[in-house]
Amino acid sequence: MRVLGLMSGTSADGVDAVLASFSGPPQRPRWRLLESASAPYPDALRRRLIAAGQGEALTAADLLELGEALTEAQAAAARACDPTGSAQLVGCHGQTLWHRPPSSGRRGASWQLLQGPLLAQLLGAPVVFDFRSADLALGGQGAPLVPAADDALLPAIGGWRALLNLGGIANLTLLPPAAGPDRQAQVLGWDCGPANTLLDLTVQHFSQGRLNFDADGRWARRGRVHEAVVQRWLEEPYFQQAPPKSTGRELFGRLDLERRLGDLGQPLDAADALATLTAFTAAVVANDLRRAPAVLELLVAGGGARNGLLMEELRRRCRGLQVRPLAELGIGASEREPLAFALLAWWHQQGHPGSLPSVTGAPEAALLGVCAWPPTQRPRSCRSTTATIRNAFSPLFIR
């Protein structure tokens, strides 16, 4: 089956899209990456999304229009990736506005903005969305969700393999080895802490909005790392918390950045701030890996994989560990997460659970997502039968 995956992360810089094919057993599918595309959000939309994610007050009308504009941007990204509309199914994460992890006996909640039925109508295909709610309802974190896809799509090696996503938030997947005493171990994964969220906000702050990110870490390279401050930040409660754990702009956003800039003292040099925050991102990951099973290699994806200085900091702080881009395995830096949500949508259609209790902390695995069909195509659900998909898309169905 051809499935289109759409992902926009905490950085809210745009939509990454892939078109992939899946067949065979759900837990270990045969898959192929067919096409990929990235579509930046228009500047005005990006600013509105980040403001909403920082808690800026919006009217109901504002939120309604924001959701509609966001959905249209997702549709544009889908068309850029799949201009002929060959996808039989679409998996769309939507844009996270707020994430509230479980705490003190209170279940978590997470809001991914998207008008799913509108997207289905615009693309003429069923859309699976709202992937986090089922796990949250069970008491899980609702995040990260990509580790289950990592486990299904990537082969095991002779030791533990780690995958790092450097999006707005840094998160890790740990895959057990193919042989040895840990071969039956569970897949692990969690959100480490901030990555591009704080870095991008810092660039926007010091450039007065003229720049959105530090390309290749060039600005940060001119600065000096305040190592004592980095080590003090690592003592904060979130970084001492054991998994399962997840986070977002609600913890590592504009207010958090203001506090950290204050910690760096005055006079504050922009390059020093960026150098220190870049080092901090790498230090958080290295610290987490020191407390995890010993891994042989760290594969890096996400926008941060294109930041040369950040990659150098990771290699320096993860001594003895091979650090390389996931792209060397044929999955580009911007392809891993949309590929994962394409797989999660296919799993929904197959009736296959998509969450991992060992990652989210829920008591059991859940079938993830809600399915919206175009108004003229109304089966009971995306997974009613494979025959339904075949009949609805008979010219496109691939055995």
Look at the structure and name the CATH superfamily of the largest domain.
Answer: ATPase, nucleotide binding domain
Please provide the ordered H/E string of secondary-structure elements: EEEHHEEEHEHHEEEHHHHHEHEHHEH
Uncertain spans? 385-399
User: Which fold does the CATH topology of the largest domain refer to?
Assistant: Nucleotidyltransferase, domain 5
Q: Strand percentage, roughly?
A: 15-25%
CATH class of the largest domain: Alpha Beta
Secondary structural class: alpha/beta
| Alpha plus pi helix count | 14
Helix content: 25-40%
Question: How many E-type strands?
Answer: 13
Summarize the model shown.
This protein has helices at residues 43-53, 60-81, 116-123, 133-137, 146-153, 196-206, 227-233, 237-240, 254-263, 270-290, 308-317, 336-350, 357-360, 386-392; strands at 2-7, 14-23, 30-40, 89-92, 95-100, 109-113, 127-129, 160-166, 169-175, 188-194, 295-301, 322-325, 370-372.
How does this structure look, described?
It is a single chain. The chain is globular. It folds into two domains: 2-144 and 335-392, 2-Layer Sandwich (Nucleotidyltransferase, domain 5); 146-329, 2-Layer Sandwich (Nucleotidyltransferase, domain 5), CATH 3.30.420. The protein is 36% helix and 20% strand. The longest helix is centred in the first third of the chain and has 22 residues, at 60-81. Residues 385-399 have low confidence and may be disordered. By secondary structure, it is α/β, with parallel strands linked by helices. The strands form three sheets. A six-stranded mixed β-sheet has the order 3-2-1-4-7-13. The protein contains 14 helices and 13 strands. The chain has helices at 43-53, 60-81, 116-123, 133-137, 146-153, 196-206, 227-233, 237-240, 254-263, 270-290, 308-317, 336-350, 357-360, 386-392; strands at 2-7, 14-23, 30-40, 89-92, 95-100, 109-113, 127-129, 160-166, 169-175, 188-194, 295-301, 322-325, 370-372. Helix 2 (60-81) runs parallel beside helix 3. Strand 8 and strand 9 form a beta hairpin.
